[in-house]
Amino acid sequence: MIEGPADFNDRVDELFLAHQLPVAIYSYCQYQDGAAPGRGAWTPFAEFSPEWQALQAARRIQAQTYFIDLPCWAQSEEVDDSPDTQEESQALLLRATRMDNSDTLWDHLFEDESQQTALPSALAHYFAQLRGDSPGDALNRQREAFMARWIGWAMQQNNGDVLVVCGGWHAPALAKM
Known about the structure:
Radius of gyration: 18 Å
Strand content: 5-15%
Strand order of the largest sheet: 1-4
Number of helices: 6
Pfam families: DUF5682 (PF18934)
Oligomer: single chain
InterPro entries: DUF5682
Structural class: alpha+beta
Mean pLDDT: 89
C-alpha cells in the first residue's frame, strides 16, 4: 500500500519502463461546470523517495502493490477554510528549536547518518507531535478515509498486517482508523 493516485494502479508497470529518475505522475481534472479552474496534482518519484523504494522492493519480492490515495478527480471541489494545523505546529517547533526554516529543522533532526537506527521512532514521534490530535483539513480527512478503506481491504485479503508507505502527516491518523 503506497500513497499515490489509486486511479493509476492499472498503469503502475509504466513506472518500470526505461525512465531516468526523477519521474512523476501528473493527475489533472477539469470540473464539470468548466468555470472553476481544474485541479492538478504531482506524485514525484526520485531514487531516495520512500514510495519509489517501496515499488522497487515490492517488485524484487513479487509483492502486490497498490496506490491508495484518493484520485484527484474524486477530491471535493470545496475549499476548506479551517486553519492548517500542520503549519501552526511546524511554526511552534521552529520557535522551540530556534531553527530558521523547516528544511534546517528536518536536516537537524533526521539527516544525521549516525542516528539512522533511531530514525523510525524519531520520525514517528515527530509526526505524532506535529499532527497531535488534529483531524486535518477536509481534503486530508477525505484522503485518509479513502486510504483507510484500501488498508482495511488489504488486511482482509491478507488475513492480517500489511505494509503502508505514506507521508508522515498521514501515518498517525491512519494508525487510529
